[in-house]
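Attaching the record inline, Q. Sequence:
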Amino acid sequence: MLLPSYPSAPPGPLKQVAFLYDNAAAAIALVGCGQPAQARRIGDALLLALDHDRFWHDGRLRNGYAAGTVSEAPLKLAGWWDSKAQRWLEDDYQAGSDSGNLAWTILALLTLDDTGKRYARGATRIAGWLQAQLDRRGAGGFTGGSFGSEAAPRPLQWKSTEHNVDLAAAFARLAAASGDGHWLPLAHSATAFVAAMWDPARGAFAAGTSEDGVTRNPRLALDAQVWPLLALPGAAARYGEVLTQGMPRLRAGRGGAEGFAYSDAGGGVWTEGTAQVALFDRLSGQGGLGALLAVLEQARAGDAGYFATTAAALPTGFMLDTDPAQPRVYLHLAHLGALAWVALAQQGFNPFTGTRQLPQQE
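Structure, as predicted:
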């Protein structure tokens, strides 16, 4: 089965959507919590999605599906009825395929117990599609994937630091799991792009590039700061200034223990990102873990898990792909991704390595 990302979402684009990234993170968190059988239910659904798309059969997955139990029938995408237009609508982002989301699916599949190698074979098929996103412009790395349904998919020519961190970890783990060195140069390409996004003057990573594949996006996003430290061997030592320069700029408050915002757009506490920092603090022995865990408990949503943010609407500093005139925000809704990351932080389980450790220096 695939779990709803926002179980209490009102009718509209978020209702009963199982976002790929959230489900991959949940599967990894379940392993970290000692629930491998439940994690495999998500893993099996991801394999069914890979084999039973309504159109694509090239190793790609969609960014979002309809939540619930799945079978060998073509997997449904979530959608909603537009009473004004009198027609069923689907979200073009959900119908598309982001490189980072697919990389997270590889990480999830490789984290599952795989005595029959089913999950590893699925991960390899996904990696086959991802390698086609390798880009030669500027610092190289991988582009964003594709946007829109099969009717008119649009290649995403921008490159994301966060995506390339995901890809570096996914390709490296696939190479180790399969013994196939083919994947290592791809991991190195993604790692080199991340290194090129480092800005020593700010002690932080740029968010990525614009559509030209070269011009840096100067926005500071939290995941682009903390994920390299969790995922890339030696990054915590190589980019130590991010702890004293980059990440403090993303504090949601001024007292030092108020958690972290999504980006330098500010606006409040991002639960998921604050849990990411808490996990790094736990694994690295940095101070402040207890204070961050206390902040996370303020985002408790009762039995539904954790709110995506304690703010009514948390700005990301980015615009919606589906409507570039509208800002992309996180709403005050219970969120599967937030729940997964809080669990990872509480358990000290690193989703990039599938262990309770930071990646070891190569």
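The two ends are 37 Å apart (CA to CA). The chain has a mean pLDDT of 95.

More tomorrow.
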